[in-house]
Design brief:
This protein has an 8-stranded antiparallel sheet. It has a two-stranded antiparallel sheet with strand order 8-11. A two-stranded antiparallel sheet has the order 9-10. It is of the alpha+beta class and 199 residues long. The protein contains 3 helices and 12 strands.
């Protein structure tokens, strides 16, 4: 009787160990799979490469359209036509369907990737902006759909290029400064990267 109980106890302990091991392995495999499945945008410019992650849960339509444009090569050869130190750099615009606003709780911090628009909230299409400084006054008013996680030095270099100052708008207070020498996006590609903590 005692031998039977010991045998059953050993068997149960062995099964528990195997179950715990399998569960741990499944968690590790799942975490690795999630990391490996993260799609990012790799943007190569005249001044270096920047890599962005996406906020698909917050702005699914905007992310989907941006990825489609990138895969078509839309941004290849486009320049950052607006560079405003302490504010944003911008590229793209036009040649894409208008998108509904997907305003969300993502803040405008250094490296924020957002969808440009006019005064009409439904005018965003392919124009993108990247914040070169925190811009909290934009929070909740524009669609934030990504964030820079590699290439902050490149963003700083682009923001610091010499520009021709241009002031537009009815009161001439909108800075639309243009680089004296174009900063060109040589290529933009969607790639899969393993990234810890990607959203």
């Amino acid at each position: 009787m005692r031998k039977t109980l010991r045998w059953r106890g050993a068997l149960l302990a062995g099964l528990a160990f195997c179950a715990a091991f399998a569960f741990g392995a499944a968690l590790a495999a799942g975490a690795a799979a999630r990391r490996a499945a993260v799609e990012v945008c790799v943007m190569k410019t005249d001044l270096g490469t920047m890599v962005f992650e996406f906020f698909e849960a917050d702005a699914p339509k905007t992310v989907a359209q941006f990825k489609a444009l990138v895969r078509k090569g839309f941004y290849d050869g486009k320049d950052f036509y607006r560079v405003v130190r302490g504010h944003v750099i911008q590229a793209g615009g036009g040649d894409a369907p208008k998108l509904p606003p997907e305003f969300n709780a993502r803040p405008h911090v250094v490296g924020t990737l957002g969808l440009g628009r006019t005064g009409d909230e439904r005018s965003g299409d392919s124009e993108i902006y990247i914040c070169v400084a925190p811009r909290p006054h934009l929070d909740g008013k524009y669609t934030v759909f990504g964030l820079l996680f590699e290439g902050f030095d490149v963003l700083e270099r682009i923001a610091a290029v010499p520009v021709e100052e241009r002031w537009e708008g009815p009161d001439k207070k909108m800075a639309m400064h243009r680089p004296l020498k174009p900063v060109v996006i040589r290529s933009a590609r969607i790639e899969t990267r393993e990234k810890q903590g990607a959203l």
